[in-house]
Amino acid sequence: MRIGLFAVGRLKPGPEKDLAARYFDRFAKAGPAIGLEFSRIAEVAESRASNAETRKREEAAMLLKSLPEGSILVLLDERGKALDSEAFANLLAGYRDQGKRDLTIAIGGADGLDPSLYDRANMILCLGKMTWPHQIVRTLIAEQLYRAVTILSGHPYHRV
């Protein structure tokens, strides 16, 4: 199963981008052995619309346009469901084992995600009840993708 990331906002060069890239690289190298591939990061600029509702609607349209046909859509939202790392790994394995071809994880912009996306989403995932800047969220999800691969392959990286 191919796993991609959609992010509103571009990650500028710096330590956050380097750390996220390191975990995405680890995921890309370790994932194929267990049927999980890193497909891409789709970054889009934040909408310049004058109000939040229009910005969210425009950003949602960009997400839906970039979404592979039939893709599982996972939204990151502090009001979503909190999973531990093993449950997240099992979620990915479950979609893979169902024969799903693509999964996209979406990071919204500063205003959040458009309500229409919640109807389309297969899962709304919480990385914590706090609000995180997108630079940190990208690093957190990259690390959790790598951690999921290590859990599913029995690698000792994940310790409880």
Indicate the CATH topology: Alpha/beta knot
Mean pLDDT: 95
User: What is the CATH architecture term?
Assistant: 3-Layer(aba) Sandwich
Q: What is the straight-line distance between the termini?
A: 27 Å
- For the biggest β-sheet, the strand order reads 2-1-4-3-5
Radius of gyration: 15 Å
DSSP helix fraction: 40-55%
- Total count of strands: 5
What's the number of structural domains? 1
H/E element sequence = EHEHEHEHEH
Beta content: 15-25%
Q: Which class of secondary structure composition applies to the elements?
A: alpha/beta
Shape assignment:
globular
Assign the CATH superfamily: SPOUT methyltransferase, trefoil knot domain
- Identify low-pLDDT runs: none
Characterize the biggest β-sheet. 5 strands, parallel
CATH class: Alpha Beta
Tally of separate helices: 5
Task: From the structure above, extract its key features.
160 residues, Alpha/beta knot, 5 helices
What's this, in brief?
The chain has five helices and five strands.
